[in-house]
Amino acid sequence: MSHVLSEETHRNMLARIPHCTGREVSDWLRTVEDGPALFRFEEKVSWLRHEYDLAYGHAKAIVH
After folding, report:
1. Do the domain assignments include residue 42?
2. Would you state the torsion angle of the CA atoms of residues 6, 43, 55, 21, taken in this order, to the nearest 10 degrees?
3. What is the pLDDT of residue 15?
4. 24 phi-psi bin (left φ>0, alpha ψ -120 to 50, beta other)
5. 20 close to 26: Cβ distance less than 8 angstroms
6. Rounded to whole angstroms, how far apart are CA atoms 60 and 9?
7. Per the domain annotation, does 1 fall within a domain?
8. What secondary structure does DSSP assign to the chain, as a single string?
9. Predicted TM-score (pTM) of this structure
10. What confidence score (pLDDT) does residue 1 get?
11. Is 52 contained in some domain?
């Protein structure tokens, strides 16, 4: 599966995250950094989705 988002799509996703999740992107980045030691992109995305009930696109944008 491709991990590539266009720059515009990535910016748009990041801009919507605070409204959709109630948390700033910087908080989510800290959460990923402080979370389990996962190495693969998809593992991090999956962890965010299941642990915090994030939409796939939002989790992918955060990890990207």
Report:
1. yes
2. -100
3. 95
4. beta
5. no
6. 11
7. no
8. ------HHHHHHHHHHHHHHHSS-HHHHHHHHHHS----SHHHHHHHHHHHH---HHHHHHHH-
9. 0.83
10. 47
11. yes
Which domain, by its residues, includes 58? 7-63
- Token digits of residue 24: 């700033």
Residue type, 26: S
Which tens digit of pLDDT belongs to each residue from 11-48? 998 999 999 999 999 999 999 999 999 999 999 999 99
Direct distance between the N- and C-terminal alpha carbons of the chain, in angstroms, rounded to an integer: 14
Q: Quote the number of domains for the chain.
A: 1
Q: Are 47 and 38 in contact (CB under 8 A)?
A: yes
45-60 pLDDT, tens digit per residue, is: 999 999 999 999 999 9
Q: Is 2 part of any domain?
A: no
CA–CA separation, 4 and 51 (whole Å) = 23
